[in-house]
Design brief:
mainly alpha; 47% helix
């Protein structure tokens, strides 16, 4: 079961009130309250948080098509919740490109090549950084 109190607290974070461009990293949210739930309720709550974060950010935009990718696209609950709330313009990357299980690794390869060539991967217009920046370190 989704813990609606925890979901409400997570959704009220100041990040969701910011205007675009905006970005955060995977360590931004502390999920201490979720860790106190039983495993299944924690999974349901985090899945709902993921889906509703996407839904709430996109529901007032004028998108033409949304193509979901990454590991979450295989989570039927998240995928179906997004599709139910945003309509028939939502697709899995697998529906568009066939078996796309390597698309994430290809993206990281692309980012790695950009780093080697000292080309930016983050720009002011997309993530709000002050100036274009490369990513990572070559070791």
């Amino acid at each position: 079961k989704i813990n609606k109190n925890i979901l409400r607290v997570l959704q009220s974070d100041k990040f969701f009130k910011k205007s675009y461009p905006k970005s955060l990293d995977r360590n931004y949210f502390l999920f201490n309250s979720v860790l106190k739930l039983n495993f299944y309720d924690a999974c349901a709550t985090l899945s709902a948080f993921t889906a509703y974060s996407i839904i709430n950010d996109l529901k007032n935009t004028n998108f033409q098509t949304i193509i979901l990718s990454g590991g979450g696209v295989n989570n039927e609950y998240i995928f179906n919740l997004i599709k139910k709330n945003l309509g028939n313009k939502v697709f899995s990357i697998n529906e568009i490109y066939g078996d796309a299980k390597f698309i994430e690794s290809q993206a990281f390869a692309y980012l790695g090549i950009r780093r080697i060539k000292n080309l930016p991967i983050s720009l002011p217009g997309t993530t709000g950084v002050k100036s274009p920046i490369t990513g990572g370190k070559i070791t």
